[in-house]
């Protein structure tokens, strides 16, 4: 691994680990049965902002010239009506990141805004930038299911490094509640235990070896609005798949395919003009590819991360173990 990527690997690994710590603390403190009954989204709001602040603090410190494209900005937190939320965000950032223990409110908000360094309607991306989803899978986060902190480094339109922290996806072996997957181009995908990556040896992640599509298992979203599940069922039927799909929230689905828990993940467009956000797929895509799989859009074209905040040149996403990829693309086209 070249020295530049090695530093990026170390920084990304630490950043998403600390962000996972912050989100876990928010879950433990703010999510109760009463919260769920009232459908109160304030805990995920606090966790989203705290996670982005923690990650952007690291990126701004180590790579100040690298733009960051993330999902959140701090404008809403600056409103007087959101003072309680703002204070909670600051407190969780200070607790999760030792370097931020004495950070001011203004500093924390500036870290959040560091994730908005691309114009909203920009049609071209910088040659090198980071893209972040501070919490992917908000409903999974609230219900205690799967969610992910997803950080990707993009160079010339291609993802070259990804960090995918899945705090609720048990590490192989079952001794740790979460898994951190790290991948870099031509360096493979590696799994570390969460919440403490340093306490366990890295294990290689590999896709399953299935080459018979009929034996494959789909991995799809819990929420039907995120992908066309009826069409997924039709595609499964064309491939002869009879196994029930593995359903989970967030980019943890990418992790599931990368480590062989499932063979296929489809993100099928729910409307003709929809284009996927880059932060929803950057980290997950390289995690699967470096584990031996393949990720394209629904016609088999590579994902193009060079066109601003969305995959403007792609429709949908198909992620597989590689061996069944062409069969899946063919089934989609039929």
Strands, helices and their partners?
Layout: H1 3-30, H2 33-37, H3 42-62, E1 68-70, H4 83-96, H5 105-113, E2 128-136, H6 138-143, E3 148-155, E4 158-166, E5 178-184, E6 188-194, E7 203-204, E8 218-220, H7 229-239, E9 246-247, H8 252-258, E10 264-267, H9 282-289, E11 294-296, E12 317-320, H10 325-333
Parallel strand pairs: 1-2, 8-9, 8-10
Antiparallel strand pairs: 2-3, 3-4, 4-5, 5-6, 6-7, 10-12, 11-12
Structural summary, described in words:
- The protein is an alpha+beta fold and 334 residues long.
- 35% of the residues lie in helices and 18% in strands.
- It contains 10 helices and 12 strands.
- It has helices at 3-30, 33-37, 42-62, 83-96, 105-113, 138-143, 229-239, 252-258, 282-289, 325-333, and strands at 68-70, 128-136, 148-155, 158-166, 178-184, 188-194, 203-204, 218-220, 246-247, 264-267, 294-296, 317-320.
- A 7-stranded mixed sheet has the order 1-2-3-4-5-6-7, with helices on both faces. A 5-stranded mixed sheet has the order 9-8-10-12-11, sandwiched between helices.
- Helix 1 (3-30) runs antiparallel to helix 3 (42-62) and helix 1 (3-30) crosses helix 4 (83-96).
- The model has no long low-confidence stretch (mean pLDDT 92).
Which key terms come to mind for this protein?
five-stranded mixed β-sheet, 18% strand, alpha+beta, 334 residues, seven-stranded mixed β-sheet
